[in-house]
Predict the structure.
Amino acid sequence: MTALLELRDIHRSYPSGDGQVDVLKGISLSIDAGEMVAIVGASGSGKSTLMNILGCLDKATSGQYRVAGTDVATLDGDALARLRREHFGFIFQRYHLLSHLTAAQNVEVPAVYAGTGRKARLERARSLLQRLGLADRETYSPAQLSGGQQQRVSIARALMNGGQVILADEPTGALDSHSGFEVMSILHQLRDQGHTVIIVTHDPLVAAQAERIIEIRDGEIISNPPPVAKTPRGPKPQVKATAESGWQQFSSGFREALIMAWRAMAANKMRTLLTMLGIIIGIASVVSIVVVGDAAKQLVLADIRSIGTNTIDIYPGKDFGDDDPQYQQALKYDDLIAIQKQPWVSSATPAVSQNLRLRYGGTDVAASANGVSGQYFNVYGMTFSEGATFNDEQLKGRAQVVVLDANTRRQLFPNKARVVGEVILVGNMPATVIGVAQEKQSMFGSSKILRVWLPYSTMSGRIMGQSWLNSITVRVNEGYSSDSAELQLTRLLSLRHGKKDFFTWNMDGVLKTAEKTTRTLQLFLTLVAVISLLVGGIGVMNIMLVSVTERTREIGIRMAVGARARDVLSQFLIEAVLVCLVGGALGVTLSMLIALALQLVLPGWEIGFSPVALLTAFLCSTFTGVLFGWLPARNAARLDPVDALARE
């Protein structure tokens, strides 16, 4: 009959300085199914190294090791993990229970990596704990259990997936005599039920209870009696776990990794919170700058639009400040009429301006008097607090009427409730007030210049006595390109004048420049915020690297019970992403509070959270978690299970 475990000429050496240290020197050994074997030897004899090779935690430097006829040297990491998961159960001297899990959850761990359904593995864990006398302790943490109870939980974990071969490393070494007796009784029961039990010990009393004692000294077997002939015992233990398949197994595995990551985070609340802090600040900075920056941009653009968008101003001369007399009379009334006839022109209003004195009663102030058409206020989106603008009849009749701005109204009529119908002197011409233009609030501040508006026919004919215009403001039809309109205007007036003795000022160009400027500033501030997010990500990576170091033994335990490298990788990666996502959610909440506070302080600002901003925040969180969690997760997945278990 083929032996269950068979070793042939096994050597195991480790590098030491410039040479090698031989720990195992040509071990040949076979163990049959159902045996209870004790491997004894002094400390440093190589018995623990032999147990690690038997349990597929370590690989021999040379030689051949077969498990049920399969050469383990031909198996990759995942296949070895599956072998440990499905055929071996480990019982450690120090129990090696995960401190943040309950007794039942510790027992479940091997079945989690086997892909067993949650309900099935919970039932089996409870059944095993009940069988071992711990039915009333399944919700207890390891710290709440005695040494003997912890070792029984460790035994239940070893049996979770069947445990055809039980490897017990000094199972009674950390127990009192009573608890040690109980543990050995359980091991005998397992042997009687068909399990193969291998005990590694230096205690001769424990070894004497085995059917066969193999003694090892200085890496060599000095005593290896043949197997004891025995009658068949209980049935061969079978793995009772029922694995899910396909998409269910993937989703279940992801869910379990998420749960384990959450439990690990909850077990170290302060460290988790400090790790999140950098992400919270980074996400809050990014979202706040994006949202508040967008609100500021909209406010700036609204102020510019309020001046008059889709409008083009035409001035005489080559550019602003050009006072060459040959250009001052370039714009004529006929030019205005020609412009008004163009199909793409919504309205065109002339402007004739001069600084004049305004007088009412004993008040005498300086103001800018502007001759305009009735469309002027519509072009610039201005409203009236009193009265209205002048009509076509008043324009044609050169009516002596005037519209005041709010500043002028306060100066001339500080104590009057209504001023429409009052008569003031504009220069030396009496004019009746027909309206008060509403003062426009702007983030740039309100103008403190006193301004009044008269019909351009009145201004040019009665006050200034000139036949030319100082400027023309054209409002382009909606949907028509202001750039095209500007080209058309330039072509039209150049043909009429025979030369280009004017220049244009496109308000949409100002708007586009402002949009570009605010977008650039917002991008710059966002980049600054992203730097803070990167700093937070580096903090996550640093803490996760520390976490890997602190939890090295936990990683070794998980590998010993069957976790694959990718299971460890996914758990630590999910932990990093989860930390960043929770930090991102808290960061978004913080940015909302900041926005709410700003809105209370700055009521004119319209701050809103777009779905794009929120989605971007969570994408940033996820990306940060993956980016900065990958290195710690990879380091965790690359740990050697033997070295990890030995780490304190």
